[in-house]
Structure formats: structure tokens, C-alpha cells
Write a sequence for this structure.
């Protein structure tokens, strides 16, 4: 079961519960949007049978701040689904956040990581770890695909590059996107420099696991909430192209389209997200309409709205708001 | 029902309960609810932590005993307090009683389990030291939970389905665990950061609770349901205060056996060691849990042969910033240990820090450790609320500090029981130590090592501070037998053999405040006597206002109405009517009326704000958020922060700026970034113009304060831990690094003119470094007890003057009749030192001298807003002369404030 379908199921059961949706004047439009989404959810989906994904990912240095300080990022080298190459939907560059990997319950993923960070294989002392890894949330995998160092998992340094104990030129992870894993989940490094990894240095991305047969959206936005900025990107619902990567990106939508936000927090701060109180949405799995959400590191929060008016997304955390942690959501 | 009948037979003492029960019977369908009675005792554990036990005879445990009841039950708690502090029993969400039992007393609490759920109960005071536990209210009937099976099915869980359950409390940066049988009847403490165990496919119920700052809980490779929904999650936020989250998993469901890490997912807490493993054994395995570090274990005087735990409370309290939970007992041992910041334990035990007594943010960071020690250096790159926990396997001395407040110290001696005396270094490496600044293999017999030890024992023991009002400075060091490195040195007669530490270090000498300067200054000097305590508030710190006409303290400002906390640094607005004051162990900026010392407003800023200055161009206020990643801007004439200028590009390591300076034209803000080891230059309306590392590729420089030439042509930065001065041009290019300890031999402690500048001079642990308003000289207040005078023409050391222990703050003010005084403060003494860098005004600084000293203790004519209770006049840090005569600011003074200034002082650049 997944919250999106719960939500729609509830829509059919309790249509009167939407009286508060979103701002009063927009009520009718919103109801229409919900009905539309409900209808779409019963359309047969393209990817309804289990698929086999072969993914090659690299981790690179990127984004020199002009003073020699760099971040790291994942880049999609190739993504083959049941023999079809869909690499073209990703950025050709290493991006922050990393590539968003869209999967369906029942899929199987083989994901191989290469380490393209300078010096990753030259550390003789093996301390600290120069190894990068992929630790994924949500889906099924066995202990060898945990993406942790041997000091944690007691099996192996599960990453690419010089680990504390074991070096690997590349490392392959196997994910079983089993029933019951639908949702949006983070993947991130768990090994670089310490056993905690370098997730705050840019090595993070998202997977979106859709239930088999679920509907698509006109746009999907992934917004990572960091300690001083959003790192985001958007996916076009038709072309599946991923774009607008980076800090506090401007997100766009067409009027009355159905868009889905995927929030994941990362770092140390606890955030308080809103769309400037211009939109309300369902707290996942509930009938509660909310317009702000407290979200802590590596929590996820996914919601759908109908794009009706331009606004800003913002973190209301005291210091972050003052630092300008906000971006535009433009509805044309 | 039987219990209810029993109560009715004894109606008198139970009347309130009876009434409550009756109300329940009348108003709810839960007429079958029971009365659950718990006798609970609060005790002090061997490591000084506090804990609850069930009954009076059982072992007190952290977390406290888990209490299981059914919805609708009446809960009666009888609390007996066997500790030395007041203890309560508060259950937020069910019974927020503030009533506490005094030491030796008993209190009763009675309340209804009105709503199913998991609740925190706690001691309502010292709770973060261990007085917390779980109260679990399950539905009166039916399933207690549900879990997600490996095929995605959502399966209800009845009580009988559960194989085992775990309580994991998230407190500071430490997990505290208990393993519990399915019926709740058998409970086993798993202590700190345990590894809970289960067999694959066991149905395991986790109760995650938190008290204090918030967390997110993550368990690898498992997923579960968001409470009350069918929505699947694998991370859960536990909010600040108290919060709980109960969920059930099938162990290894869909993922198999393994050591699956669980941890808090806040990066600062991950760095702080907040993790363990859920050990899922294959079918047929034992599924046994591995117990973590125990307060009863192998620590000094610990009673049990199991891995032990010592705990330090992180505090705003002077000297006891890292205070052992049993600090009073340590001080009471017959070894003349005057510090509460020292602990002793065996290899394999752990040290735990909990930020339970502070309003600021901190890091827990290694300063030194035994050579080659495992798990070192320990560090948090970002300051935050929480704590830290680390297992120490290698014998020797470990010293931890907070990078934001680098005089906070904790020392842990991990002693190999097979060596004579306490090991100060690694026995396997000739008792040597490594330092965070890249020095490795330093013998503990060297002068440098002994000085570091001396710094620790002075900083953390107020009885070793230099109190001039007593007329004598007697520094006593512990008589603990210690074991240090190789060759004999100084007073240590037998190298490598155990000798009392006191043989190395004791000193005893007469002291006097000294005479006051002969020539008056202009106006006032405001001094942050940051450690001075007053009767009307819990937090330390006052402002001592010195009248430079007669060199007396005319006013003490404690601001008890806001519990002013560790006031650190000040600045004024243009017309000198408002003094801006940072509270460095808090998140407040305070506006004070200059004329009468009264509070104008106390406003929120970022955590651990250190320095404050105005932009001479606009009079806007800039605040360095030392515990965060920005400079905050408060527009002139307002009392709210308008924006924050980031000190680093998005996603880059947090800079943690400390003592910033601003160019005389107001266009640039220059910060020393303690965490990233660089000088940052920022446009005053935003934008990063330069980031210049100051460590010359050696770690741990710790740039802490900035000085700037009045024409902004050069920027100076002191590097606290490298004992160096970085000289940069106005654009941020590094021109030169001046070694301030070149003349010092760290091995034998001798001094010689090794840098060939004609004088023997050092500046150990340099801090504040202002350039005189006329740009001709600079002083560096150095914590090691020196004032270094630098000639800014050549950027060489011109003179060294004697300062007091903990020498820290410096700023210039006008000297009457022309010229300037540098006012220098010291943390561990109670006088202000007045320096004249060029008494005859000839531009040659070799005659720089101490013009006089000013006692910072309350005098007969001192106006006060509170009564000084202890540490009189101590803690000298930020210092500010009013009127503010720095170039760029002095020109903006109202005419009334320019009276008394010479023409050159009114226009220091001579134009």
C-alpha cells in the first residue's frame, strides 16, 4: 500500500473532507484536480510488469566555489531498463541532487558505482576512507548491498575506492524493489572519509518507487532540504527528462497541472517547509490537510498539488529563512 | 476488578484515586480498567548519572524501567528520591505534574492512561542525566501494532505475536537501550549505544523515545508504518522536548540476517557517535543483544567488570564547561583534584558528553590523544545541540574541547591497569601523545606537554585562577601518581616512573593588582567579565564598566531579568547610546542603554553569537554566529535581524566565524572561520569575495580573531592553535605567517631569540588582535599569558608584555591628551591591563609598556543591578572603549563625544 493510493481511496470514501482545500477561492478547482487525479489512477500504467534495471553511476568532484572548496556529486553513466537505454533522460553532468531513479514495485535493480574522485585509490594509510558508496533507503537488499563500511556491517567495505579495510574498483549493489516499498526514498554515500560518509557534500539522490499501475504526474520535483539551501531538480512527466538541478531551483508548472513534490531533508537542521501558505496538501497516509511540515534529516515527505498560482517554497527554520533558503514555484 | 475491590477496602488514603476511578467508571466504557501501582526510586549511579529503579532494591537503570499499562488504567506512582537533587515524575501528554520529591523524601502521583501511545516519563530537572523512561499505554484490547511483511502485506500484531521489544532512548547524542520480553515482565538494561539482537523473522517492537534536542531515527534495511497510517517510512523525526515513536518490524524481513546499523540521521549526531547495530541472526542463531557502555562498568571506582561509561555534562558554568556527572565526588577524592573536568577509566570503556546544561551549541572535538590511539581524532565539523560518545581503547590521556569555545576542556585518563601510575601517554608508544595540530609523538615529559596540562588544570579549576583580591596565587595540582615519557626533565626525577603530578606543577606566589595608569583615558571601558556570577541569576557573566578618569569600576551590569548568559563581546551604535552585547553560550543579542546600563531589548540571533560590530557606513549591526554559518545583519535603529549573510557557498562546510572585523569604509566584513581554518572576506551586502586558508596546509590552525589596518590595506588573523599571525593584503592574499612561538623550545621550555628579531618574545595561544586606530601598532592578547606588540610597518614582533592566565580580549581607546591605550582582559584573572604601545609617540614600539592595571572587582562606588556571588571580576573577554575611536567610526561620533579627543584622535589617518 502506498499513501498516494490511500489518499485517493479516501477521496472516494469521504468527498466531504475536502472543504478546506487549498485556499477557499480555489476550492472548486482543487476538487476538480483531485477528481482528475483519481480518474488517472485507474488508467493502466505503462510499466506495470516487473522490470530489470542495469545502472552505472559515478561519483565525481564538482562545484568548486571559486576558492578551491569542492563538493561531490553522482552522475548517471547509463540506465538500461529491460534492454532499453533511458540514459538520455538524465543530465550528462554530475548533479546535486544526483539522478532521480524512478522505479516500480516489483522491479529489480543492479547498480554499479565507480569512483571518479581524484585520489580515491592513492591512499596507502587507508585512513580516512576514500571510498564512496550508495546506501539506499526503503527497498530490499541484503547485507552486502548496505553501502556501509566493514566496521559497521562486519562483512566488507561496500563501496568504490580505498576503504578502511577493503578496496574495490567498482561496487555493485542489488536492490529488490519489492511490494511494500513504494514511496520516495533517499540514496546517499555512507563511506567517504568516515563511516558516516559524505552525504552532506553532495552525494545524495532520490529513488521514486511507484506502485504498479499508478498514474503519472505532469511534473515531479525533488527538493532536498540541506542546512543552508534547497538542492532540487524537476522531472517532466511526458519526456521524463530531468532538469533544473542545483541550489534553490526555480520550479515551473503549467496552470492546472498535477504536480508532485518529493521532499527529503539532509544534514543536521530540522526544517519547517511550506509553499508560503498558498497551498495545502494531505499529510501522507492521512486525511489531514496541512500547509507546513516539520521534516528532519532523511525523512521524506511527498505530496501532490494542482498548480494554480505562482508562489515560493521556503524553509521557515529561523536561521535558514534569514539566509534565503527559498525558491520560486512558477505557474504559467 | 480485584484491585479495585482492594482499594475500596482501604478508602481513606486512596480517596482521590477512588474518585478518579469512579469518574472513569461513570464516563467511559472502560469500566474494566485496572489500577497499576509502581514504586519507583531515583538513585545516583557509580558514574554520577541519575536513574530510576523499580522498587528500592533493584538496580537503577537508564532508561528507567519501562512501564506497561492498558488504556483506561489508573496509574499510581510512588517516587522515593535517594539522590541529592530534587526529582519529579512528569509524563508529558498524560500527567505534567511539576511536583518533585526532595532528597530522601517520597512523592505520589496518580493519573489516568487516557490515550493509547508511548509516553516519556522524566525527572523534571536533571532528566537528561538519566532520569527518563518509557510508559507504554496499549489499547485495552485488540492488536497493539501492525508491521509491513516482506510481500508488502500489512499484518496486525497482537501482544502474543511479539518475540521481543526494545526501548531506545535518544538523549544528547547517545542511545540508551533496554531489552524487554513480549509481556514487559522481563527487562534487561542494554546501556549506552547497545547492539540489540534478534533472530531473522522475529517480530520485534521498537519504542523510540527522545528527551532534549530532537533527532531522526533510522534503522537500515527495515521499513515500518508511520503511526496511525498505512504509509511506509524508515526514518522518523523526534521533535525537541519529549517525543516518542513505537513501531514493529519483522527482523530481516525481505533483507535477511545482518548487522543493520541504526542511528540518528542528523549529521552532527552521526559524527558524535550516535549509532549502534540491530544484529539480526540467521534462523537458529542466538539473537542475543550486545550490551553497551554501563555506568556501573570499568571506570575509576566502578563496581562491575563490564565496559564502563563516564559522562560529562556540557555546561555554561565557568570552569566546569565539561563537568563530570560525579564531579563533586572526584573533587572530594584525597588527591587534591580541584577540577570537575577530569575522569579516569579503563581501556574499552566509553566517554559520553551530554549538552544538558547549556543554551548554546558546541562541538566535542579532540585536542590531544595518546599516540596512535584508535578512533582519534574525534570531531564534529558542525556545532550543534546534543553531545558525543566515543569508546577509548588505547591507554593514555585524552583531552577534548569545543571548537566554538576553545577553553572548554575535558580530560580523560584511560589507564592500563598493568602499569604503575596513571598513563598520560600511550604505554605502547613511550607514553607519547598526538595533537590535533598535526604534532605526533610528543613526549609527555616535554615542556609543551606540561604546559598543556597546566592550562587544563588552571582553566577548569577556579581555585587555581589568579584572584588578585586574595594577594596570593597558589596553584595546586593533583597528587595523582602519573606516568610520563622517557627521559628525565625538570622536576621529574625518574623518567617513565610514576610520580605525583603535583611534583611537576605546583606554584605559590604573592600577587597584587598593581598600580593604575598615571595618565587617564578618555571615557569608559566596558569589559565582559564573562564568568562573574551574581545572586539573581543562574547563568554567569556581567559587564564591568570602568571609568578611565579614575580607573574604577563605576557599574556592574548583570541583567538578572534576562539571565544574561556568558556575555562575550560588545559594540556601540554611532551616537554611543546603545551597547550591543552578544551572549556566547546562548542565541541572544542584548541591547543595553549606555547611559544607565539598563536592558533595552533581548533579541534572538543565531546560536553562540560571538562578536558584534557596526558597519561604519550605515550603522547596521553585524553579528558573527559562531555556532552557525552566517553573519546576521540587524538594520540600524531596529531590533530584529533582517537577513543572514552565509559565510560559505551552499553545501560547503560550516565556517563558524568568531571575531570578525569590518573595513573602515564599511564595505567588507572579514571573519576568522574557526571550523574551516580560513579568513573569509564578504561584501557587507552579501557575496563571498575571498576564502584564504591560514594553516599553510597544516591542520587545526583555528583562526579566531581579525585585526585590520585603518586604511584596510592589511588584514591580520590570529591562529589560536598554531600560535601564528597571518598577514593578508586587503584582497585576502596571504602575505606572511608570523610564528609567535619561534623563540620557544617546546622540548625543554627554554627561550632564545631564534627568529633573530632582536628580542625574546612569544605569544602562546593568540586571540584578539586589534590594530591601533592610527595603524601604527597592534597588540595580540595571548591566552598563554603574554601580550605581543607588533609593528605594522614590518609585521614583526616589537615587544612582549606580561599578561595574566587566559589573556583574551583587547581593544584600543583614546588616551587623554593624545595617543591610545590598548585594554587587555584575561579570563582567569580579575584585572584589566592597560597597555601603551608607544609611550613617547615616536613610532618606535620597543618602549611599549604596561601603563597600569585596573581591578575589575566591585568597589564601594560601583552601581549594581545584582549582587556578585562568586568569581568576582573573572572571565575578562570582550572589551570596548566608549567613545569608539577606531578610524571610520570615530568620525561618526556626535560632537559631544568628540570633546576630549585630540584632532589626530578625531581623524586618525591625519586627513
Amino acid at each position: 500500500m502506498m499513501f498516494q493510493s490511500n489518499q485517493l481511496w479516501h477521496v472516494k470514501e469521504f468527498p466531504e473532507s475536502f472543504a478546506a482545500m487549498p485556499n477557499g477561492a480555489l476550492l472548486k478547482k482543487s476538487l476538480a484536480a483531485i477528481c482528475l487525479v483519481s480518474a488517472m489512477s485507474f488508467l493502466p500504467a505503462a510499466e506495470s510488469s516487473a522490470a530489470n534495471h542495469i545502472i552505472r553511476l559515478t561519483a565525481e568532484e564538482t562545484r568548486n566555489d571559486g576558492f578551491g572548496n569542492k563538493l561531490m556529486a553522482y552522475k548517471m553513466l547509463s540506465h538500461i531498463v529491460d534492454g532499453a537505454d533511458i540514459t538520455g533522460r538524465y543530465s550528462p553532468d554530475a548533479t546535486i541532487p544526483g539522478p532521480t531513479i524512478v522505479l516500480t514495485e516489483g522491479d529489480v535493480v543492479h547498480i554499479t558505482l565507480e569512483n571518479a574522485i581524484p585520489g580515491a585509490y592513492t591512499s596507502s594509510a587507508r585512513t580516512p576512507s576514500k571510498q564512496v558508496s550508495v546506501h539506499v533507503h526503503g527497498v530490499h537488499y541484503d547485507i552486502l548491498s548496505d553501502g556501509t563500511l566493514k566496521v559497521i556491517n562486519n562483512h566488507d567495505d561496500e563501496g568504490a575506492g580505498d576503504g578502511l579495510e577493503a578496496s574495490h574498483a567498482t561496487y555493485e549493489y542489488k536492490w529488490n524493489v519489492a511490494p511494500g516499498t513504494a514511496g520516495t526514498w533517499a540514496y546517499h554515500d555512507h563511506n567517504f572519509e568516515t563511516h558516516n560518509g559524505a552525504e552532506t557534500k553532495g552525494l545524495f539522490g532520490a529513488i521514486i518507487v511507484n506502485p504498479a499501475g499508478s498514474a503519472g504526474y505532469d511534473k515531479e520535483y525533488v527538493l532536498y532540504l540541506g542546512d543552508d539551501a534547497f538542492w532540487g531538480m524537476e522531472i517532466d512527466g511526458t519526456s521524463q527528462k530531468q532538469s533544473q538541478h542545483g541550489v534553490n531551483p526555480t520550479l515551473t508548472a503549467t496552470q492546472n497541472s498535477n504536480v508532485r513534490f518529493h521532499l527529503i531533508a539532509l544534514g543536521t537542521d530540522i526544517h519547517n517547509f511550506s509553499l508560503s501558505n498558498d497551498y495545502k496538501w494531505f499529510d501522507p497516509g492521512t486525511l489531514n490537510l496541512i500547509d507546513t511540515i516539520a521534516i528532519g534529516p532523511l525523512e521524506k515527505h511527498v505530496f501532490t498539488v494542482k498548480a494554480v498560482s505562482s508562489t515560493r517554497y521556503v524553509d521557515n527554520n529561523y536561521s535558514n529563512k534569514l539566509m534565503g533558503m527559498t525558491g520560486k514555484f512558477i505557474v504559467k | 476488578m480485584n484491585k479495585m475491590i482492594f482499594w475500596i477496602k482501604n478508602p481513606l488514603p486512596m480517596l482521590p484515586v477512588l474518585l478518579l476511578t469512579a469518574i472513569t467508571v461513570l464516563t467511559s466504557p472502560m469500566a474494566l480498567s485496572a489500577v497499576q501501582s509502581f514504586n519507583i526510586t531515583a538513585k545516583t549511579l557509580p558514574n554520577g548519572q541519575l536513574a530510576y529503579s523499580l522498587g528500592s532494591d533493584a538496580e537503577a537503570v537508564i532508561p528507567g524501567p519501562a512501564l506497561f499499562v492498558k488504556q483506561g488504567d489508573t496509574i499510581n506512582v510512588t517516587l522515593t528520591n535517594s539522590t541529592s537533587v530534587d526529582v519529579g515524575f512528569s509524563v508529558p501528554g498524560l500527567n505534567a505534574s511539576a511536583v518533585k520529591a526532595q532528597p530522601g523524601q517520597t512523592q505520589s502521583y496518580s493519573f489516568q492512561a487516557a490515550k493509547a501511545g508511548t509516553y516519556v516519563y522524566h525527572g523534571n530537572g536533571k532528566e537528561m542525566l538519566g532520569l527518563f523512561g518509557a510508559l507504554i499505554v496499549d489499547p485495552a484490547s485488540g492488536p497493539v501494532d501492525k508491521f509491513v511483511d516482506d510481500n508488502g502485506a500489512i499484518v496486525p500484531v497482537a501482544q502474543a505475536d511479539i518475540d521481543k521489544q526494545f526501548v531506545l532512548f535518544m538523549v544528547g547524542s547517545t542511545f540508551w537501550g533496554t531489552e524487554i520480553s513480549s509481556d514487559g515482565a522481563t527487562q534487561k538494561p542494554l546501556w549506552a549505544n547497545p547492539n540489540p539482537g534478534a533472530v531473522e523473522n522475529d517480530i520485534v517492537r521498537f519504542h523510540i523515545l527522545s528527551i532534549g534536542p530532537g533527532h531522526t531515527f533510522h534503522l537500515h534495511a527495515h521499513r515500518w508504518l508511520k503511526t496511525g497510517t498505512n504509509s511506509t517510512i524508515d526514518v522518523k523525526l523526534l521533535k525537541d522536548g519529549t517525543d516518542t515513536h513505537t513501531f514493529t518490524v519483522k527482523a530481516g524481513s525481505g533483507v535477511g540476517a545482518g548487522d543493520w546499523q541504526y542511528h540518528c540521521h542528523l549529521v552532527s549526531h552521526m559524527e558524535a557517535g550516535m549509532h549502534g547495530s540491530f544484529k539480526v541472526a540467521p534462523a537458529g542463531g542466538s539473537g542475543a543483544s550486545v550490551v553497551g557502555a554501563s555506568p556501573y562498568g570499568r571506570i575509576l571506582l566502578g563496581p562491575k567488570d563490564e565496559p564502563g561509561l563516564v559522562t560529562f555534562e556540557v555546561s555554561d558554568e565557568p570552569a566546569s564547561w565539561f563537568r563530570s556527572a560525579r564531579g563533586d565526588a572526584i573533587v572530594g577524592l584525597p588527591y587534591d583534584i580541584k577540577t570537575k573536568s577530569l575522569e579516569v577509566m579503563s581501556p574499552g570503556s566509553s566517554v559520553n558528553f551530554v549538552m544538558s546544561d547549556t543554551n548554546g551549541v558546541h562541538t566535542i572535538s579532540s585536542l590531544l590523544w595518546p599516540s596512535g590511539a584508535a578512533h582519534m581524532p574525534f570531531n564534529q565539523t558542525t556545532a550543534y545541540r546534543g553531545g558525543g560518545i566515543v569508546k577509548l581503547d588505547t591507554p593514555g590521556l585524552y583531552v577534548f574541547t569545543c571548537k566554538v569555545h576553545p577553553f572548554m576542556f575535558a580530560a580523560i585518563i584511560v589507564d592500563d591497569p598493568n602499569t604503575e601510575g596513571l598513563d598520560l601517554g600511550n604505554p605502547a608508544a613511550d607514553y607519547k601523545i598526538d595533537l590535533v595540530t598535526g604534532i605526533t609523538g610528543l613526549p609527555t615529559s616535554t615542556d609543551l606537554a606540561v604546559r598543556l596540562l597546566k592550562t587544563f588544570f588552571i582553566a577548569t579549576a577556579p581555585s587555581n585562577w589568579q584572584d588578585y583580591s586574595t594577594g596570593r596565587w597558589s596553584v595546586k595540582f593533583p597528587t595523582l601518581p602519573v606516568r610520563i615519557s622517557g627521559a628525565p626533565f625538570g622536576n621529574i626525577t625518574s623518567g617513565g616512573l610514576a610520580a605525583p603530578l603535583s611534583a611537576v606543577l605546583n606554584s605559590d606566589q604573592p600577587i597584587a593588582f598593581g598600580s593604575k595608569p598615571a595618565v587617564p583615558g578618555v571615557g569608559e571601558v566596558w569589559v565582559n567579565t564573562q564568568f562573574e556570577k551574581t545572586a539573581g541569576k543562574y547563568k554567569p557573566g556581567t559587564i564591568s564598566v570602568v571609568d578611565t578618569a579614575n580607573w574604577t569600576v563605576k557599574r556592574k551590569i548583570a541583567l538578572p531579568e534576562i539571565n544574561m548568559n556568558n556575555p562575550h563581546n560588545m559594540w556601540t551604535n554611532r551616537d554611543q547610546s546603545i551597547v550591543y552585547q552578544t551572549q556566547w553560550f546562548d542565541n541572544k543579542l542584548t541591547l543595553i542603554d549606555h547611559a544607565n546600563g539598563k536592558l533595552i531589548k533581548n533579541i534572538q540571533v543565531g546560536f553562540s553569537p560571538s562578536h558584534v560590530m557596526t558597519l561604519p557606513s550605515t550603522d547596521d549591526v553585524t553579528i558573527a554566529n559562531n555556532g552557525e554559518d552566517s553573519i546576521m545583519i540587524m538594520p540600524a535603529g531596529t531590533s530584529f535581524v533582517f537577513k543572514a549573510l552565509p559565510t560559505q557557498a551552499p553545501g560547503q562546510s560550516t565556517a563558524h566565524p568568531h571575531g570578525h572585523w569590518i573595513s573602515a569604509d564599511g564595505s567588507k566584513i572579514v571573519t576568522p572561520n574557526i571550523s574551516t581554518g580560513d579568513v573569509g572576506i564578504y561584501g557587507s551586502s552579501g557575496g563571498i569575495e575571498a576564502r584564504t586558508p591560514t594553516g599553510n596546509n597544516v591542520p587545526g590552525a583555528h583562526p579566531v580573531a581579525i585585526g585590520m589596518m585603518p586604511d584596510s590595506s592589511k588584514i591580520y588573523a590570529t591562529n589560536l592553535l598554531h600560535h601564528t599571525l597571518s598577514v593578508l593584503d586587503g584582497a585576502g592574499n596571504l602575505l606572511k605567517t608570523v610564528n609567535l612561538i619561534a623563540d620557544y623550545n617546546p622540548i625543554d621550555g627554554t627561550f632564545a631569540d631564534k627568529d633573530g628579531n632582536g628580542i625574546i618574545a612569544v605569544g602562546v595561544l593568540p586571540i584578539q588582535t586589534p590594530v591601533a586606530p592610527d595603524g601604527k601598532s597592534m597588540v595580540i592578547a595571548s591566552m598563554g599569558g603574554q601580550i605581543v606588540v607588533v609593528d605594522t610597518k614590518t609585521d614583526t614582533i616589537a615587544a612582549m608584555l606580561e599578561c595574566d592566565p587566559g589573556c583574551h580580549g583587547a581593544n584600543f581607546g583614546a588616551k587623554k591628551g593624545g595617543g591610545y591605550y590598548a585594554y587587555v582582559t584575561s579570563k582567569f584573572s580579575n584585572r584589566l591591563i592597560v597597555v601603551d604601545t608607544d609611550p613617547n609617540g615616536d613610532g618606535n614600539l620597543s618602549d611599549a609598556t604596561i601603563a597600569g592595571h585596573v581591578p575589575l572587582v566591585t568597589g564601594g562606588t560601583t552601581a549594581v543591578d545584582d549582587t556578585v556571588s562568586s568569581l568576582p571580576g573573572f572571565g575578562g573577554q570582550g572589551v570596548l572603549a566608549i567613545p569608539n575611536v577606531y578610524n571610520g567610526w570615530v568620525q561618526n561620533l556626535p560632537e559631544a563625544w568628540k570633546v576630549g579627543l585630540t584632532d589626530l584622535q578625531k581623524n586618525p589617518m591625519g586627513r
Summary: Chain B has four domains: 1-115, 142-292, 309-510, 524-905.
